[in-house]
Amino acid sequence: MDHGAPELKLGFLTFNLSTVLMLVITAIIVFLIAFFATRNLKLKPTGMQNFMEWVMDFVKGIIQSNMDWKTGGRFHILGITLIMFIAVANLLGLPFSGIVINHELWWKSPTADPTVTLTLAAMVMVLATYYGIKMRGAKHYFGTFFQPMSFMFPLKIVEEFANTLTLGLRLYGNIYAGEILLGLIAGIAGTGFLGFLGGLIPGMAWIGFSIFIGFIQAFIFTMLTMVYLSHKVSEDH
User: Fold this and answer.
1) Which residues contact 40 (CB under 8 A, 6 or more apart)?
2) Residues with Cβ within 8 Å of residue 152, at least 6 apart in sequence
3) DSSP code of residue 4
4) Measured between alpha carbons, how far is 225 from 118 in angstroms, rounded to an integer?
5) Torsion of CA 69, 71, 74, 75, to 10 degrees
6) pLDDT reported for residue 210
């Protein structure tokens, strides 16, 4: 796969235009799903409204499995946004996968970029820290870094960074590896008629598996987000 990434440099900053484009498309798709699912609300939900209410109940179940609803209810919208955004972002690279223009890759899943996944993970950790201080107080929050023993402080700091890295890299690794393999299968299918026949079934099977992985990774990221938030804000932690 002989291609690079389209870039835009503004001073000391460099933007991957492909990633920016795909993030914008992801945001638009999520907005349209939410808009059309809620524009004509009915007492007996059907169609898109039924789907949206299922997502809301599903995320509510994730939150309640980690903390009481009185504490976790404020994170409901966050969970819905995360699971929908990440699911769409994970699946976006499957159709039209690997569109290359002038040796530059323009179409891919934005979560196949470590910058995106690590930024999401860092945002989650910053948010968890903010709510930990806001809801439990600065004294209690920073005191947890010295529990159960004061010598645990360096390990607690390492744990914070490790949680951020694993949360982001887990998502990136699964999506990136899936797109690489899909690209290899597509390359085999493009070598000729026999290559097409040889790559057709594996390609279809891998697309189906990638859809499954895309949803699972969105669930895992959202679940771990609520786990980290619970550790910072719940009374029993």
Assistant:
1) 49
2) 145, 146
3) B
4) 13
5) -80
6) 82
Confidence class for position 59, pLDDT limits 50, 70, 90: very high
Q: Are 55 and 219 in contact (CB under 8 A)?
A: no
- pTM (2 decimals)? 0.85
- Taking 70 as the threshold, does the pLDDT of residue 233 lie above it? yes
Structure tokens at 203: 């390609």
**pLDDT of res. 135:** 86
Run of H or E residues at 14: strand 13-16
Question: How many CB atoms are located within 10 Å of the residue 206 CB?
Answer: 19
Contact (Cβ atoms closer than 8 angstroms) between residue 189 and residue 122 = no
Q: Which residues contact 21 (CB under 8 A, 6 or more apart)?
A: 106
The C-alpha atoms of residue 201 and residue 203 are separated, in whole angstroms, by: 5
Q: Are 141 and 132 in contact (CB under 8 A)?
A: yes
Closest CA to 201 of 188, 213, 212: 188
Query: Angle 39-72-120 (CA atoms, 0-180°, nearest 5)?
Result: 75
CA distance 55 to 130: 26
Other beta carbons less than 10 A from residue 129's beta carbon: 14
